[in-house]
Design a protein that fits this description.
Layout lengths: L1 H22 L25 H10 L1 H9 L4 E4 L3 E4 L2 E3 L2 E6 L8 E4 H22 L3 E8 L22 E9 L4 E3 H4 L5 H13 L5 E3 L11 E4 L5 E2 L1
Parallel strand pairs: 9-11
Antiparallel strand pairs: 1-4, 2-3, 4-5, 6-7, 7-8, 7-10, 9-10
The structure holds zinc ion (ZN).
């Protein structure tokens, strides 16, 4: 009995200490750690960024509010309800993000939120492997009303709802370029950077496809927030 009383008292005392710590802000919980607290895209992601991004994907208004609190420059896009598998819901048009893109694009809010976090990692990876920052991300687009791999039959691609983006390469701050087609799989700093950039995207996107997946992806990475989980 005595031991039990001791344990209970210890738990109570610990609880009181934690409460005091939080109350007087001796203990500070970093943003994005508590799953019920609002997301802060300008702070490092917590332990499960992909789960958080998927929650945003299911809640358009919440996602748009989260983007509005970030440094991203964008304009909301009029709703284009999905018809025959194509449309754009909770869409935004990116004017300027932390890293510039080669062309303005529209995408579903959650894809943009994922990219926003991913850009931080990309920048760090480029500095580590290539000794330069990223001046531009070259993408081939987000929205296209088409089936997977542009086949006549089959399911709609995630691009049909702008729930995906294709990235072909990067321009570094020193002017050099990294291209998936040219540098993927090479035993060079650029090749290692691309391998890590591919793997790193799996933290934020449900499907991440590259040259190892199939020949159609030999020249770009495809990221999407569809239901399939694949990282290859
Ligand atoms: Zn794609």
């Amino acid at each position: 009995m005595r031991a039990l009383a001791f344990v209970l008292n210890a738990i109570l005392a610990l609880g009181l200490l934690v409460w005091l710590g939080l109350h007087f802000a001796w203990i500070r919980i970093p943003p994005n750690i508590l799953p019920w607290a609002a997301l802060n895209l300008d702070a490092p992601p917590g332990w499960s960024p992909r789960l958080r991004i998927n929650s945003l994907s299911m809640d358009g208004p919440q996602c748009l509010m989260t983007l509005a609190r970030s440094q991203l420059l964008y304009t909301p896009v009029d709703e284009r309800p999905v018809k025959d598998g194509c449309g754009l819901e909770s869409g935004v048009k990116i004017e300027r993000s932390q890293i510039p893109y080669n062309q303005v694009f529209e995408a579903r809010c959650a894809v943009v939120a994922g990219l926003y976090w991913y850009e931080r990692d990309l920048e760090a990876l480029a500095r580590a492997h290539l000794g330069a920052g990223i001046a531009r991300i070259d993408h081939w687009g987000t929205y296209a009303c088409r089936n997977i791999n542009a086949r006549k039959e089959g399911r709609r691609s995630q691009h049909a709802t702008a729930n995906a983006i294709d990235i072909a390469g990067f321009v570094l701050s020193d002017g050099t370029t990294v291209q998936v087609l040219r540098d993927w799989g090479t035993d060079t700093p650029k090749g290692r950077f691309l391998a890590e950039a591919h793997r790193g995207a799996c933290r934020y996107f449900n499907a991440v496809l590259g040259p190892n997946y199939n020949a159609e992806h030999r020249n770009h990475f495809h990221f999407d927030l569809g239901r399939a989980r694949i990282c290859r």
